[in-house]
Amino acid sequence: MKSQRLGMLSLRLDALYCLVLGSLVALTAPATESAVPLPLPLIVAVGAAVVLWAGLVEWMRAKLPQPVALRIVLTANIAATVLVGALAVAAVPVLAVLVILTVAVDIALFAGSQAIALTRLRTAA
Questions:
Q1: pTM, whole model, 2 decimals?
Q2: Which residues contact residue 78 at a Cβ distance below 8 angstroms, ignoring those fewer than 6 apart?
Q3: pLDDT in tens, 22-42
Q4: Measuring CA to CA, which residue among 107, 55, 59 is closest to residue 82?
Q5: Backbone φ, ψ for residue 64 (5° rounding)
Q6: Structural domain spans, the chain
Q7: Which of 17, 20, 71, 122 has the most crowded Cβ, counting Cβ within 10 A?
């Protein structure tokens, strides 16, 4: 896959993932409140923020030079991986820990695909 296409695909899939994940977090907040040590309004706000981030990722993909967009999203994904991983440590039920860790791994995989795309863009230039 060409570097430009890989970068575009990584950003688009990241935006779609964030849209779906953020929506699920916000909509299922009442059911998940007991599994995570966060108040309901904060869980809903986090879900809404992830949905907004999805829109921002798509905007960056369309408007910014691809290396800039990839660096910004890669940095955010590394930070999100650490935060979500820390939340998993604080989660109570084992199933909640596994679900949250799975999300952390998903985010880390997006960061990896963006790092690969950036590396390929640098070597192609």
A1: 0.81
A2: 108, 111
A3: 999 999 999 888 877 789 999
A4: 107
A5: -95, 155
A6: 3-124
A7: 17
